[in-house]
């Protein structure tokens, strides 16, 4: 039996880690993972909402009630509005050629500027003055000075005013909110009218300022123009430079050349003509001198002879086609005769001239050229000197032109402003006037109720999640697997308050009995050789169902024919006792050399025996730390198939780690919704430090309201529902006779 037990221990110890737990008894470096604040997932939120649904509903009801109360306490406000149209004015631009064009301003910037003017303090003060709101107790403290009351009234107007532009248009709606509907309409109409009036006044003021500015500029430019003209005339008189001045089509002054320039230009022209005449006369004289009279005649009539020859050739060619008396032929014959006569006349004239005449003409032309050239040379020095003096005259002339152009432009602009300055055109027009509203604008009852309900819902959800994070208890099977990193061996449903837990365990078809049967089955598969022989059950704190689970698990093993011993090892607060045995138990067995059989008592159920805790004054921790405990456990293993040890809680006591180190498997009992994550983690760490073989956890008192589709079978497919939760102070009596 001992060899088998040792083999069982080795099988359990060497059992590999599973994907479910990630733990094996041989892996001493494993520690449960604690929950981080960022681990809040959908299932936890869903669980928090389900568990604290009444808190959420209460917050929703409170939010709705507060919204109703606030709505009833709020003063009804009425909002009246006017519709304005704002058109960006066009600006006239004068071009350099005197023509004008119109250009629109930046539309977006202009509209934003107008919106700002509508909300300006100046406009609010103007409306307050017009309506005498400074004397209205609703708008100002009547005990304050006039200026203070005016500021208070304008501030109240600005606070109640709202400007809402119509998207994609030049329309804007101006609203004013007031408890009095008639007053709201009156004030907002005054805002629209005064805004239009202020735009007109600003335009008129701008024109007046422009006129005054142009008048000052005209006077200054006129004085500068007159001074520049006087300076130019004085310089002309002093220098003796005489020029003629004309006005061009563009309005600029154009100066003509001086007298010396004009004379020199004329002499240059005459000199050029004289040179041409001298060259011509010289050429004729030289040709006549070298060629003689015959040559002179031939040369003088060469052109006429050429024309006659060409005409004669054409006549001869046509004569082959036409008769001599043909009109066209007669006409050509007449032309030939005329050319012959002209040749004869020219020859007679040439023959009649002599060489002396040509020479005289040549000499006369030469003398005229020399005289003109001498006159031109004498005028060049005078013209160069006069041009140096005309530079200063040109500078003065340009200054006169500049001042005259500036003066003309200012005069033209002044005339335009003088014509249009008195005609006011506002870029703002009133489209719809305000009428006293019938229904209040505020409070908006449906919106307030919806906001209150929504706010209450949000607060309720936040509180539910906050409580879930603050009270981070183990509630769902997923918490055991994922947040604690442990194998879940079974889920024990919460029993009804009207039934007894022990009575439910006596019924093999109850949901509690079947739940412990599921735990038993899970234990049978944690090692290859079957279930562990010694099973130790402990919990983090009292009242988590540890003792009930010990009895339920032992009862389940007994039902399948296993010889089972239930040991009540919680000697500080015993739970189990048997009728007729009041004092004997584990405490006496550990403090003596007695045999196990002397203190084991029947429980009244087949195959189930009990070793009670016993009574005594000995220290429980010292008894459990002695070598006697191992002897008692070995003796129990040799006499029973399964030994179930109901131990004390772990936190604050040394008993549980000592007992866990002796057991083949340790089960941690966790109350659903009662055990904190951190506390359970500490429990696991203490058990691991004592080399305990933690087989897994059992989740007890699992409420039906937390069950989803994964755990619904506990409540829908079981044979029945059982009893109330375990009381930590309850004593379980096992009847020898089974009654």
Structure characterization notes:
The chain is α/β, with parallel strands linked by helices and 739 residues long. Among the domains are: 41-74 and 443-471, no CATH class; 78-199 and 425-432, 2-Layer Sandwich (Alpha-Beta Plaits), CATH 3.30.70.1130; 270-384, no CATH class; 483-488 and 531-706, 3-Layer(aba) Sandwich (Rossmann fold). It has helices at residues 2-13, 42-51, 53-73, 107-118, 121-131, 146-160, 181-239, 259-300, 302-319, 327-352, 355-420, 445-470, 477-483, 501-506, 511-524, 546-559, 586-590, 620-625, 628-639, 655-662, 677-689, 713-716, and strands spanning 78-86, 90-94, 100-104, 161-165, 171-178, 245-247, 253-255, 428-432, 488-493, 534-539, 564-568, 576-578, 601-602, 608-611, 642-646, 665-671, 694-702, 732-734. Strands 9-17-16-10-15-11-14-13 form an eight-stranded mixed β-sheet, with helices on both faces. A four-stranded antiparallel β-sheet has the order 4-5-1-8. Helix 2 crosses helix 12, helix 8 packs antiparallel against helix 11 (355-420) and helix 15 (511-524) packs across helix 16 (546-559). The protein is elongated. 30% of the residues are buried. Mean pLDDT is 75; it is low at 1-38 and 719-730.
Characteristics:
disordered N terminus, four-stranded antiparallel beta sheet, 55% helix
Helix count? 22
CATH architecture of the domain at 483-488 and 531-706: 3-Layer(aba) Sandwich
Largest sheet: 8 strands, mixed
- How much of the sequence lies in strands comes to 5-15%
CATH superfamily of the domain at 483-488 and 531-706: P-loop containing nucleotide triphosphate hydrolases
**Euclidean distance between termini CA atoms:** 34 Å
Tell me roughly what share of residues is in helical segments.
55-70%
Structure classification: alpha/beta
**Mean pLDDT across all amino acids:** 75
The name of the CATH topology of the domain at 483-488 and 531-706 is Rossmann fold
Name of the top-level CATH class of the domain at 483-488 and 531-706: Alpha Beta
Q: Would you identify the regions where 5 or more consecutive residues have pLDDT less than 50? A: 1-38, 719-730
General shape: elongated
Strand order of the largest sheet: 9-17-16-10-15-11-14-13
How many beta-strand elements? 18
- Roughly how many Å is the radius of gyration? 64 Å
